[in-house]
Design goal:
- The protein is an alpha+beta fold and about 375 residues long.
- Among the domains are: about 100 residues, Beta Barrel (Elongation Factor Tu (Ef-tu), domain 3); about 140 residues, Helix Hairpins, CATH 1.10.287.
- Helices cover about 45% and strands about 20% of the residues.
- Strands 1-10-14-12-11-15 form a 6-stranded antiparallel barrel. A 4-stranded antiparallel beta sheet has the order 2-9-7-4, with no helix packed on it.
- Strand 11 and strand 12 form a beta hairpin.
- The longest helix is centred in the middle third of the chain and has 42 residues.
- The N and C termini lie far apart (about 80 Å).
């Protein structure tokens, strides 16, 4: 007679021992292989080269000798292109007027060259020649006003000095003659400008009746004339302030002027740094481990607390070696200058890299 025997269960201690002996070593080995592969594929591989996010800077310089009236800009302030930063007053507008005259002369030469080659647009050429002459007369008027202001001050000073017998009548007569000449020049130009403006307007109206299209060259010439007119309006007189605006979007990194300070022509008064970079600049040192070409794929590796990996491509490869002068330079006692071949990379959209930040670049061969 068969007996119903119940199976004897395996003790848990024995099952755990079998698992540790037969399976656990293989599981640990597989985990180690996976972790090692992840580490070496993402963070453990040394970058091909280091790159720096390009720093874009724009300087605000004094357009001439003058006095700072107001400083609106503050260091580390966020600004947009066109925001007013500094209110500046020229003490001697002749430098700026001479600069406008030089630009006008270049523009006149360009217009004359075009006139000789476009015979069918003679009427338009005459119009712009006349408009160039009108703007030149306006510049002459503003310079004559500046000269009249100076001679008025000299005459007033000479009048007081001649009363007290500090100067002779001859010096007084010289000051008076200079003042009269300057006044006559201003009067003549003020009488001439309305007539010249009327002629320009009449010629413009006659051209518009016959012309069916506007030549690209003359359209550009019109824009440049308007630009010169705007510059002239901004320095119409010594009492007219000039507002210096932010040339780019960014952050004000430095302000080197104060209200009431006298500054010289070309002096740097403020600096604006772009708040974002659009490309990375790196240097490949010799011996070259890879031969990069534009369009080659690459990986960006940041060095922040949370590493970011992003795919990019080579934008430009230099064909010469140049000295490295930024934070990427590695100068040792054995060499005086660190040399490298410049390479630029695009910064992908959505990847936040601060201007001046150093990142690693892994080129994919």
């Amino acid at each position: 007679m068969k007996e119903n025997l119940e199976p004897i269960s395996t003790p848990k201690e024995l099952l755990w021992r079998d698992f540790r002996v037969d399976y656990l070593p293989w599981i640990v080995l597989i985990l180690l292989i996976v972790i090692t592969w992840i580490f070496w594929s993402k963070t453990g591989v040394a970058p091909t080269l280091m790159a720096e996010a390009e720093i874009v800077k724009a300087q605000l310089v004094a357009p001439g000798n003058g006095i700072v009236q107001q400083v609106i800009a503050e260091r580390f302030s966020q600004v947009k292109a066109g925001d007013p930063l500094i209110v500046f007053k020229l003490t001697d507008p002749n430098n700026a007027l001479n600069s406008i005259r030089m630009e006008l002369d270049l523009l006149s030469a360009k217009a004359e060259k075009s006139q000789s080659s476009i015979s069918t647009r003679r009427a338009e050429a005459d119009y712009y020649s006349l408009k160039l002459d009108l703007l030149a007369k306006k510049i002459d008027l503003e310079q004559a006003k500046v000269e009249l202001t100076r001679t008025e001050k000299d005459l007033a000073r000479a009048t007081e000095l001649v009363k007290d017998k500090y100067i002779s009548d001859e010096f007084y007569d010289i000051s008076l003659a200079a003042h009269d000449n300057a006044q006559a020049a201003v009067s003549n130009l003020q009488e001439m400008l309305p007539l010249l403006s009327e002629n320009v307007e009449k010629l413009r109206l006659s051209i518009e009746k016959d012309a069916t299209d506007i030549d690209t060259h003359y359209s550009q010439l019109e824009k440049e004339l308007d630009s010169l007119q705007t510059k002239l309006d901004n320095i119409a007189g010594p009492e007219t302030p000039i507002i210096l605006s932010a040339p780019i979007d960014g952050i004000i990194s430095g302000v080197w002027c104060t209200p009431g300070e006298t500054v010289a022509d070309g002096q740097i008064m403020a600096m604006v740094n772009a708040s974002e970079s659009t490309r990375l600049i790196g240097y490949l040192r010799q011996p070259f481990s890879v031969d990069p070409t534009p369009g080659m794929q690459a990986t960006i590796v940041t060095h922040t607390s949370r590493r970011t990996l992003a795919t990019t491509e080579v934008e430009y490869v230099g064909n010469f070696m140049e000295p490295i002068t930024n934070s990427l330079a590695r100068v040792s006692t054995s060499q005086l200058v660190d040399m490298g071949m410049p390479i630029s990379f695009k910064i992908p959209e959505g990847v936040k890299i601060r201007p001046g930040e150093v990142v690693g670049i892994m080129l994919r061969k």
